[in-house]
Amino acid sequence: MTNNNFRFIGNFDVLNIVDRLKDLNWNYFTWRQENRPGLKYTETIPLIWENNFKYYNAWEYLDSFKDELEKLKVLITEDVGPGDYITAVFTKLYAGYDISPHIDIGQPFRDNPRIHIPIVTNNDCLFTVGNETVNMKVGEMWEINNFNKVHSVHNRGVTDRVHLMIDWKLTNP
């Protein structure tokens, strides 16, 4: 794919993650859907996260996914460059709903790569940045350039969509 907003990185086996999603309490963290416009019909499981992006905290489920995050760290380092996680969260968008068009501003969005990995999705779930739209498949790793750009997601399918969303801090940008 040759565009400026989406870059396909490769594939990652998400089977072990999918098996554990049913055991997560999707209702214990509600800050994003309560405080971020456009995220009303989403749920979030933070692994590494801080609401104000100043101090990044490990959350309750981090240990459950450390093995996968370590494997991903190797792949991201090889493709994107050496660094570490700023954020790592599972985000769920309900079937039949949208993440309305919005712009992410400020850190960590400005200088750091954002990576999306679909864990559960469907053919009717479309991610748009600017005038470019992609249907990401399960296990694909995508670097998204959405800083200061209007972006949205439309889930017209009958299944919820779950992504692992990662913000990556490059060691030597």
Describe the 3D structure.
- There is one protein chain.
- Helix content is 15%, strand content 39%.
- It is built from 3 helices and 11 strands.
- The strands form 2 sheets. The chain has a 7-stranded antiparallel beta sheet with strand order 1-9-6-11-4-2-3.
- It is globular.
- The longest helix is centred in the middle third of the chain and has 14 residues, at 66-79.
- The chain has helices at residues 15-21, 31-35, 66-79; strands spanning 6-11, 42-49, 57-58, 83-93, 98-102, 114-120, 125-129, 132-134, 140-144, 151-155, 161-170.
- Strand 7 (125-129) and strand 8 form a beta hairpin.
- It is α+β, with helices and mostly antiparallel strands and 173 residues long.
- The two termini are 24 Å apart.
- The model has no long low-confidence stretch (mean pLDDT 89).
Short key terms for the protein model shown above:
173 residues, 39% strand, 3 helices, 4-stranded antiparallel sheet, 7-stranded antiparallel sheet, alpha+beta, single chain
Helix/strand class: alpha+beta
- Biggest sheet, strands in spatial order? 1-9-6-11-4-2-3
Q: Which percent range fits the helix content?
A: 10-25%
Rounded to an integer in angstroms, the radius of gyration calculated over CA atoms is 15 Å
Query: Secondary-structure element sequence?
Result: EHHEEHEEEEEEEE
Q: What is the first-to-last residue Cα distance?
A: 24 Å
* Number of helical stretches of at least 4 residues: 3
Poorly predicted parts: none
Major sheet: size, sense and barrel closure? 7 strands, antiparallel
Shape: globular
What is the strand tally? 11
Mean pLDDT: 89
Strand content: 35-45%
